[in-house]
């Protein structure tokens, strides 16, 4: 809107930029004059605006920048230590949300902390401290989260197994090793049965979808 634009320019000059003396602003304030564009063009030259009068968006942006710079210059002590509303809280929130964002992996304190955690959790040492940190994260996620602890705390009932009744199929020459091998084989069979159960459930779910088509007798077609 032409009137809005002219009023905006006058307001900037009157309130913030103040390049002209008050008595010299008459032509710029006369926004209804046919000569206003010439007055505005002269004003742009006087404030050393690098843009042409036709480039309004660029001109407005430049004049606003000039106004901000002058406003700051007049009140430098007031603005130099100020921050946008909520900026400090936002910064603190960001830091709390991302505590490792500025982590220095070469910092001796970081290396010592990772090593102490690895020793505490009995994790194998590695030359790369980031690899150790990743191992710590995996262990914590799988073993030390609330869900993992709750799951581990649940008592698992099962039937007692007489190992002597199960044939190992080979002999290691050591009775203790033979017993350990029998236990590992039984655990492996249990895992295979659990996997087979999940496979069967998936097959049944797929069959339930493809074996129950919607029939439209009017079209003489079967299908979804």
TrEMBL record:
InterPro entries: RTRAF
Top-rank taxon, per record: Eukaryota
Family under the similarity heading: Belongs to the RTRAF family.
Protein name: RNA transcription, translation and transport factor protein
Source organism of the structure: Oceanodroma tethys (Wedge-rumped storm-petrel)
């Amino acid at each position: 809107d032409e009137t809005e634009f002219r009023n905006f320019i006058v307001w900037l000059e009157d309130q913030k930029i103040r390049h002209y003396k008050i008595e010299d602003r008459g032509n710029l304030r006369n926004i209804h004059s046919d000569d206003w564009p010439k007055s505005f063009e002269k004003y742009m030259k006087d404030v050393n605006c690098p843009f042409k009068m036709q480039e309004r968006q660029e001109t407005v942006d430049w004049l606003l920048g000039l106004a901000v710079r002058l406003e700051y210059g007049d009140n430098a002590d007031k603005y130099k230590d100020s921050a946008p509303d909520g900026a400090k809280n936002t910064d603190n929130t960001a830091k709390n949300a991302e505590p490792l964002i500025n982590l220095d992996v070469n910092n001796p304190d970081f290396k010592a902390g990772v090593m102490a955690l690895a020793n505490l959790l009995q994790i194998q040492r590695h030359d790369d401290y980031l690899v150790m940190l990743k191992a710590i994260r995996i262990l914590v996620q799988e073993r030390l989260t609330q869900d993992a602890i709750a799951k581990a705390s649940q008592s698992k009932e099962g039937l007692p197994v007489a190992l002597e009744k199960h044939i190992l199929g080979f002999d290691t020459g050591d009775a203790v090793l033979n017993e350990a091998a029998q236990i590992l084989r039984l655990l492996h069979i249990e895992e295979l049965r659990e996997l087979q159960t999940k496979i069967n459930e998936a097959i049944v779910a797929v069959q339930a979808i493809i074996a129950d088509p919607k029939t439209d007798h009017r079209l003489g077609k079967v299908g979804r």
